[in-house]
Design goal:
The chain is built from 5 helices and 4 strands. With 151 residues, it is an alpha+beta fold.
Length: 151
């Protein structure tokens, strides 16, 4: 589907080198509008919201902040580690938001699976419904997040 010029500009901002070395789209060849629509469809199918997913991610990040770079076990199910890279990164959606360059690693010990996200990832999910493109390092599709975060 054809996207409007504003979304096209935002997608260009997501390319490697614009805001980050690797960008936000990975090897996903879909346009931004199609990525957003598919993730919205998946969230609706799960019966949850972008805000609920972001709230759960933020919960784990806030626990991890209490002991940076040290794994913390939460509820005997999760292991969370947060690292801080100093500085800020702007949101490619041009909404005047800058997030701390901080990354969270979460392992669901029961499932034996690990996922990663940044503070910017949380913001983009919560405010824009954007989970990044397929192949992006921080891409976690709604189904994966739903399962691993225990929603």
């Amino acid at each position: 589907m054809k996207q409007n010029p504003k979304l096209q500009t935002i997608q260009e901002n997501m390319a490697p080198g614009a805001y980050t070395a690797h960008g936000f789209l990975g090897d996903d060849t879909r346009n931004l509008l199609d990525i957003l629509k598919q993730d919205q469809f998946d969230i609706n199918k799960l019966g949850t919201t972008h805000e609920e997913v972001a709230r759960r991610m933020r919960y784990f990040t806030e626990i991890g902040i209490t002991s940076p770079d040290v794994p913390i076990v939460v509820d005997d199910i999760y292991e969370v580690t947060v690292d801080d890279h100093r500085g800020y990164i702007p949101c490619p959606f041009a909404d005047n938001v800058k997030e701390i360059k901080r990354n969270t690693k979460l392992t669901n010990l029961t499932l034996g699976k690990t996922i990663y996200w940044s503070d910017l990832t949380i913001h983009m999910i919560e405010k824009h419904g954007f989970y990044e493109g397929k192949g992006s390092f921080f891409r976690n599709d709604p189904d994966t997040l739903y399962m691993l975060l225990g929603l």
